[in-house]
Specification:
This protein has twelve helices and no strands. The protein has two domains: 2-53; 62-271, Orthogonal Bundle (MetI-like fold), CATH 1.10.3720.10. It has 277 residues and is mostly helical. It is found in: Cell membrane. InterPro entries: MetI-like, MetI-like_sf. This is ABC transporter permease. Keywords: Cell membrane, Membrane, Transmembrane, Transmembrane helix, Transport.
């Protein structure tokens, strides 16, 4: 019986090690990312406690944590998060709904692209914060002005990437479809949209970053609530922990949305037609 037990342990032990290694390699990216964050947080806390740098300038992870508990316990955090989230989703979804069709039309029809390309490039190059005073005049300081600046920041990367995606479609696929007398709507459904999907996802990912910048800028300039407004007020009163808290909330939302977009991109990766298969 003892030899059987010993043999069972000997057999099971390599299986456990192999299983552990497989689990690590499968989640290596996430594990290393979490380890990097822990190292940065630990170094930040040590620097804050050592007194090498004035805490009023750096705060510390624990101070930010306690400030976050007080902020959300009072109810202000949930209100600001709701306001910022509603503004962000409204502007970003509107940018997607407008940017993709406009990009398709400009990418497919050369004359329309030549007609509107200077306008798109001008508005894309213009700093959005410089337009904020106009948005305040046009829409006031309520939600509309923030939605406008978020939309303006996100829509042009989507349009430009959509145009690039349409222009880089393999011409062999289009020629084959036309040789079989395919209708325009069939070409769009089976070739154009699947082929341009990677460019669409890239444009949405770029637009996401611009949208997050827009929400912070908009709420700092003209707002009475929201994460950006809280950061502005906290900075004016030297509450560094709340400023970092707002930064972490905005950046954290960006990381979550970016990961969701990346998963969506992987999910539809096989949808793209390949002429060489």
């Amino acid at each position: 019986m003892s030899s059987t037990k010993k043999m069972t342990l000997t057999i099971d032990e390599p299986l456990k090690i192999t299983s552990w290694k497989q689990g690590y390699y499968k989640n290596e990216r996430g594990i290393l990312g979490a380890l990097g964050i822990l190292i940065v947080l630990a170094a930040w806390e040590i620097i804050g406690r050592s007194g090498v740098v004035d805490p009023i300038f750096t705060s510390s992870p624990l101070q930010i944590w306690y400030a976050g508990i007080d902020y959300f316990s009072s109810g202000s955090g949930w209100i600001d998060l709701k306001v910022s989230g509603l503004e962000f989703l409204s502007g970003f979804i509107l940018a997607i709904l407008v940017g993709i069709p406009v990009g398709i039309v400009m990418g497919w029809y050369r004359k329309i692209e030549a007609l509107f390309d200077p306008i798109v490039n001008f508005l894309y190059s213009a700093p959005r914060i410089a337009l904020m005073p106009l948005f305040i005049i046009w829409f006031g300081i309520d939600m509309s002005s923030k939605v406008a600046i978020i939309f303006l920041g996100a829509v042009f990367p989507i349009i430009i990437n959509m145009i690039v995606g349409i222009r880089t479609i393999d011409p062999i696929l289009l020629n084959v479809a036309r040789s079989y007398k395919a209708k325009d709507y069939q070409i769009f459904r089976t070739i154009v949209l699947p082929s341009a999907l990677p460019a669409v996802i890239s444009g949405i990912r770029l637009g996401l970053g611009h949208a997050l910048i827009g929400i912070v800028v908009g709420e700092m300039v003209a707002s009475t609530s929201g994460i950006g407004y809280m950061m502005n007020q906290a900075g004016a009163s030297y509450q560094t922990d709340l400023v970092f808290l707002g930064l972490i909330l905005i950046a954290g939302c960006g990381v979550v949305f970016t990961e969701l977009i990346r998963r969506l991109e992987r999910r539809f990766d096989n949808w793209r037609p390949d002429v060489h298969k």
